[in-house]
Amino acid sequence: MPRIAFPAVSGWTYPEQLQWLAQRAYDHRRIVEIGCWKGRSTIALAAGTRGIVYAVDSWKGSADRLDECNVFLAREGSDQVFREYTQNIAPYRNVTTFKMTSVDAWYQLRKSKFDFVYLDGDHDYEAVKWDISHWGGLLVKGGLLAGHDADIIGVKRAIKELVPHHKVVPSKDAMIWWWTDGSE
After folding, report:
1. How many structural domains are present in the chain?
2. % helix, strand, coil for the chain, step of 5
3. Closest to 37 in 3D by CA, of 16, 64, 57
4. What is the pLDDT of residues 71-130, one digit of tens each?
5. φ/ψ of residue 89, rounded to 5
6. pLDDT digits (tens, 9 = 90+) for 141-170
7. 78-89 and 40-48 are packed helices; what angle lies between their axes, rounded to 10 degrees?
8. Could you write out the DSSP letters of every residue in 36-70?
9. Cα(4)–Cα(153) distance, rounded to whole angstroms?
10. Residue 157 phi/psi, 5° resolution?
11. Are 24 and 146 contacting, i.e. CB atoms less than 8 angstroms apart?
């Protein structure tokens, strides 16, 4: 797969991580992303896959009031962030957006199966555990489970407990973690 030139969308996923996501998406057709913000990683997934990306975010921030996203939301408002997300992903017709919490989206999609689950939602330990157990439970055999911010305490703890054999994509910061059972 050739390198992709991504549009300038603000976010915390580095260019080499966007390439990694696009390259992994190339081999997957049913992708769900939890946590989209302004669509930076959503675009990487959508540009890489020949399938569909189900993008889930409430655009209301996380439980951590000091989180960077929450500070921005307090200043700009969630409607503004959602408008920017919508504009950014407009060229990608293979994205279906669910403007709701991870839990609410899971209840809507719980009978679905995905071959790539990407988690970058609420980084609170309990929320990450919930996302790994529930969204990971919708993964087909041989599918890819991955997430962002493996260096954040809540995320790190949850993946260590629930995905002990995960791997990490080398990066200068905000690491991506991933796991697959290796089946096809």
Report:
1. 1
2. 40, 20, 40
3. 57
4. 777 777 678 889 999 999 999 999 999 999 999 999 999 999 999 999 999 889 999 999
5. -95, -5
6. 999 999 998 888 999 999 999 999 999 987
7. 20
8. -TTSHHHHHHHHH-SSEEEEEE-SS--S-TTSHHH
9. 31
10. -65, -45
11. yes
pLDDT of residue 152: 87
In this structure, is residue 80 part of a structural domain?
yes
Is 12 among the domain residues? Answer: no
Residue 37 domain flag:
yes
Which residues lie closer than 8 Å to 52 by C-beta, 6 or more apart? 29, 30, 31, 94, 95, 96
How, if at all, do strands 30-34 and 52-57 pair?
Answer: parallel
Q: Which residues contact 72 (CB under 8 A, 6 or more apart)?
A: 81
| Residue 99 domain flag | yes
Query: Which is nearest to 101 in space by CA: 9, 147, 148, 34?
Result: 34
Of 53 and 4, which is predicted with more confidence? Answer: 53
Tell me phi and psi for residue 53, to 5 degrees: -115, 125
Instruction: Please tell me the predicted confidence (pLDDT) of residue 40.
Output: 92
The band of 183, judged by pLDDT with boundaries at 50, 70 and 90, is: low
